[in-house]
């Protein structure tokens, strides 16, 4: 085969490329969210195009990077449309013209060969269409830009060398981590107003050591690898060569339709309009470069892990370095290791009971975080991503008890009946079909009934999170009755397999054993024998396909909360609903395409913020009028939960009594304690553990910020009373006299009243309505952060503004015009009186409380 004219093979390659890209779910919708940014929000760059138009791109964060999601917003770009001139369709990327390529590249000023792009997306049409190509960094006869990895090895895309030689068998050669983590590239679209946005996951050398290596030393003796985020708007090709007829050809038959599509992002004329944002990376999180054998082991809560990982590198530096390591495991397992003497420092929200250990144990407050119900849901017809969702305890009970019917991915049985009709026949298929859910979320009627919304992504193992979730359910009368068999008013009942489920539970369970084909009978050779009811003949099928347990296929298990966050971000279901004909097994389908995502799961708040995944509002009691109060996680609602807690006089820990939570409290709040032995440790070990606790209680560790040693977003800084308790425990650990010091308070209601309750610095847990800045989560992330807890006045004008901005994105535009001025005036008044009215506004039943609830509900109804 000749390489001088690869176009005859191009149609086949491009069709294969489109199929591959669609399968990996790599295209993104431009979120319809507030795009105006504050003057200091992120880094903005501008490029002047050939016709004099100016394009602008803003990235909300470029420093102190780790594996996380950033917001990329742009304006002044050409609108994306399809070949027929119609508005763009996110589910048909191959027909879209003038898209936007966003990619991660190696180097501060990278070449095309250092950028991760789709394996066929590097394709460029014959060079005569692009005279700018000759002026760039190299001409490739075959029209393909190769990729050069971290060790200098060149990978020829589509097996075509750049100059000379022949294309091979078409098998793409690329680094191995492209298989593991996917390519670091996304395709996005621009609206009719020339604006667009995308949430882009930045990865480090820990995830992609072969292709990028960002922020890490990959080759010993060299400096850490520098990387950049690159944005390339696809624009019309010049087509000025004399070999080209007037203008660019544009017909499918001539294979020229894709001249302005994503495959041209790497062409010279488009590459010269690139926007480059150098990225600065933090060292490996949770990593201590000192001798591994000298690191003090710690283990336990994954909810606390984001904070501990940020502290460890700071503890490992300086002359008085304290080498340490942290292993997130189920808290039940961590406590078992403590009981067995395998650990002396374990973290969890439930204590080590004195009767379970022969070692004196003190508990030091370490962090205040929480669990959230995070989701990634797109509205149909490219409308936008869902950023507002409400759940009550009974809906959560339905999700975690396999009480939705789901959808069978196999064939009907021999009777011709879909087997799921025999399984809970009157139940909704998914959350989206539940009338109770739609009554709380009427604007979400008509969403795609995908089986992925029949079960949530849940963490496995024995831990405090399942115990907290199920304890919350039992405290809610409706959810508790549902778990005992009482249907809701629409007739939905708990899955009978869970009627005897012992709760509160230390792990999420999968108890349903319904088999898809009731007629299948296993045979010795692994086949199933079925009697055809029509002919009476014995027919044989693969048992794995026809005799599978339905809910075993629908279960979405994950060993890590962080993985749940990234799976939600990338639209990766954990269900096994696709039959592999070659392997003869059920497997996970490809990630959901942008524009058709529908996933929900339980993760921790810090992870949701890190990956910009929206979180649901949770119902917590009712207001004075009997309507449910919905609460989101933020500083005020998490502190209210701490104050609603009950002090365990024996262990000095605060546990949440969900029957006594105030209406302003977020029920997902967790207080994680370090349980540390105060006897039996050597003096050096005791001293180092004490120093770790002292650091955790320090202003550096309890001030929210992006640097190593600071508190990540997603945590409430420890109030001063809890810091005093941690320092007191540190002294007892150092002295090793079997002391278990009592906390410096007797009633949790007093916590946060002695001053120093919050150390936010320049960063808070409130979403910036303007799209965020380099140190905060923008509005397209967990929108719930934008609102103060239901029943409480906004703490300041910024928070009030953020709340209204997020609400208005959900509202009807005509309603906004009608109510905009009154709301603006009301917000000005709220900002002026927020501080003196804050306490009254947080007390259920007061006139101030009812006023704010009425104002909030009026806005949402409009």
Number of helices: 19
Share of β-strand residues: 15-25%
Return Rg in Å. Answer: 28 Å
Sheet of most strands: 6 strands, mixed
> Using DSSP, what is the number of strands?
31
Shape: globular
Question: If you average the pLDDT, what whole number results?
Answer: 75
Q: Going across the major beta sheet, what is the strand order?
A: 15-14-16-31-17-26
**Poorly predicted ranges (pLDDT <50, ≥5 residues)?**
1-40, 119-129, 134-142, 240-247, 249-256, 410-417, 761-862
Work out the helicity level: 10-25%
| Class inferred from helices and paired strands | alpha+beta
Q: What's the N-to-C terminus distance?
A: 64 Å
Description:
With 862 residues, the protein is α+β, with helices and mostly antiparallel strands. Helix content is 23%, strand content 17%. The chain has 19 helices and 31 strands. Strand 8 and strand 9 (154-155) form a beta hairpin. The radius of gyration is 28 Å and the shape is globular. Residues 1-40, 119-129, 134-142, 240-247, 249-256, 410-417 and 761-862 have low confidence and may be disordered.
What's a concise summary of this model?
With 862 residues, the protein is α+β, with helices and mostly antiparallel strands.
């Amino acid at each position: 085969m000749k390489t001088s004219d690869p176009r005859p093979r191009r149609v086949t390659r491009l069709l294969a490329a489109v199929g591959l890209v669609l399968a990996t779910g790599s295209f993104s919708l431009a979120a319809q969210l507030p795009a105006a940014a504050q003057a200091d929000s992120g880094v903005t760059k501008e490029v002047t195009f050939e016709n004099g138009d100016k394009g602008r791109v803003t990235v909300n964060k470029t420093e102190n990077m780790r594996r996380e999601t950033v917001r990329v917003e742009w304006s002044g770009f050409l609108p994306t449309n399809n070949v027929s001139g119609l508005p763009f369709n996110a589910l048909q990327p191959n027909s879209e013209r003038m898209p936007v390529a966003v990619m991660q590249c190696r180097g501060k000023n990278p070449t095309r060969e250092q950028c991760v792009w789709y394996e066929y997306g590097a394709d460029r049409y014959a060079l005569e269409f692009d005279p700018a190509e000759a002026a760039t960094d190299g001409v490739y006869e075959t029209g393909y830009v190769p990729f050069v990895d971290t060790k200098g090895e060149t990978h020829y895309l589509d097996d075509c060398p750049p100059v000379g030689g022949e294309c091979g068998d078409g098998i793409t050669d690329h680094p191995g981590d492209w298989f593991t983590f996917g390519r670091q590239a996304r395709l996005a679209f621009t609206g009719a107003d020339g604006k667009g946005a995308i949430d882009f996951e930045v990865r480090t050398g820990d995830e992609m050591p072969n292709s990028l290596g960002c922020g890490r030393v990959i080759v010993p003796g060299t400096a850490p690898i520098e990387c950049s985020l690159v944005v390339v708007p696809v624009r019309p090709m010049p087509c000025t060569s004399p070999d080209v007829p007037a203008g660019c050809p544009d017909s499918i038959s001539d294979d020229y339709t894709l001249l302005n599509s994503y495959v041209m992002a790497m062409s010279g004329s488009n590459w010269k309009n690139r926007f480059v944002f150098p990225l600065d990376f933090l060292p490996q999180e949770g990593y201590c470069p000192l001798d591994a054998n000298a690191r003090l082991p710690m283990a336990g809560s994954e909810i606390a892990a984001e904070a501990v990982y940020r502290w460890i590198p700071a503890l490992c530096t300086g002359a008085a370095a304290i080498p340490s390591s942290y292993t997130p495991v189920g808290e039940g397992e961590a406590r078992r290791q403590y009981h067995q003497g395998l650990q002396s420092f374990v973290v969890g929200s439930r204590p080590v009971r004195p009767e379970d250990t022969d070692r004196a144990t003190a508990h030091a407050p370490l962090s205040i975080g929480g669990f959230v119900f995070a989701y990634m849901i797109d509205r149909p017809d490219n409308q936008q991503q869902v950023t507002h969702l409400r759940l009550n305890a009974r809906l959560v009970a339905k999700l975690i008890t396999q009480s939705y019917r789901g959808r069978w991915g196999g064939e009907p049985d021999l009777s011709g009946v879909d087997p799921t009709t025999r399984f809970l026949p009157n139940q909704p298929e998914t959350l989206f079909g539940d009338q109770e859910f739609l009554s709380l979320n009427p604007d979400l009627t008509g969403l795609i009934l995908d089986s992925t919304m029949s079960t949530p992504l849940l963490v496995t193992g024995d831990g405090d999170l399942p115990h907290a979730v199920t304890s919350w359910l039992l405290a809610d009368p409706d959810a508790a009755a549902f778990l005992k068999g009482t249907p809701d008013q629409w007739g939905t009942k708990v899955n009978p397999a869970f009627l005897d489920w012992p709760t509160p539970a230390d792990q999420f369970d999968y108890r349903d054993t319904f088999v898809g084909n009731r007629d299948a009978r296993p045979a010795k050779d692994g086949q199933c024998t079925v009697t055809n009811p029509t002919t009476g003949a014995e027919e044989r099928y693969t048992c794995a396909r026809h005799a599978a347990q339905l809910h075993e296929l629908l279960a979405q298990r994950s060993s890590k909360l962080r993985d749940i966050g990234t799976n939600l971000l990338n639209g990766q279901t954990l269900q096994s609903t696709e039959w592999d004909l070659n392997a003869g097994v059920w497997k996970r389908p490809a990630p959901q395409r942008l524009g058709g995502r529908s996933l929900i799961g339980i993760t921790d708040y810090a992870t949701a913020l890190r990956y910009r995944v929206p979180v649901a509002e949770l119902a917590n009691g009712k207001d004075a009028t009997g309507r449910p109060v919905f609460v989101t996680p933020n500083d005020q609602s998490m502190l209210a939960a701490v104050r609603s807690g009950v002090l365990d006089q024996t262990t000095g820990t605060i546990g949440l009594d969900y029957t006594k939570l105030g209406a302003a409290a977020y029920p997902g709040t967790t207080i994680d304690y370090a349980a540390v032995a105060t006897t039996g440790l050597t003096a050096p070990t005791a001293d180092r553990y004490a120093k770790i606790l002292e650091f955790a209680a320090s202003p550096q560790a309890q001030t929210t910020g992006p640097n190593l040693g600071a508190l990540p977003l997603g945590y409430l800084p420890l109030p001063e009373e809890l810091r005093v308790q941690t320092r007191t425990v540190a002294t007892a650990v150092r002295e090793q006299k079997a002391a278990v010091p009592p906390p410096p308070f007797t009633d949790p209601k007093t916590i946060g009243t002695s001053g120093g309750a919050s150390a936010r610095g320049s960063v808070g847990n409130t979403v910036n309505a303007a799209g965020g800045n380099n140190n905060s989560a923008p509005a397209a992330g967990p929108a719930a952060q934008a609102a103060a807890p239901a029943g409480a006045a906004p703490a300041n004008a910024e928070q009030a503004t953020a709340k209204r901005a997020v609400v208005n994105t959900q509202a009807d535009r005509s309603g906004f015009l009608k109510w905009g001025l009154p709301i603006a005036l009301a917000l000005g008044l709220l900002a002026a009186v927020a501080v003196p009215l804050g306490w009254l506004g947080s007390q259920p039943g007061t006139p101030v409380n009812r006023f704010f609830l009425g104002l909030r509900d009026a806005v949402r109804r409009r």
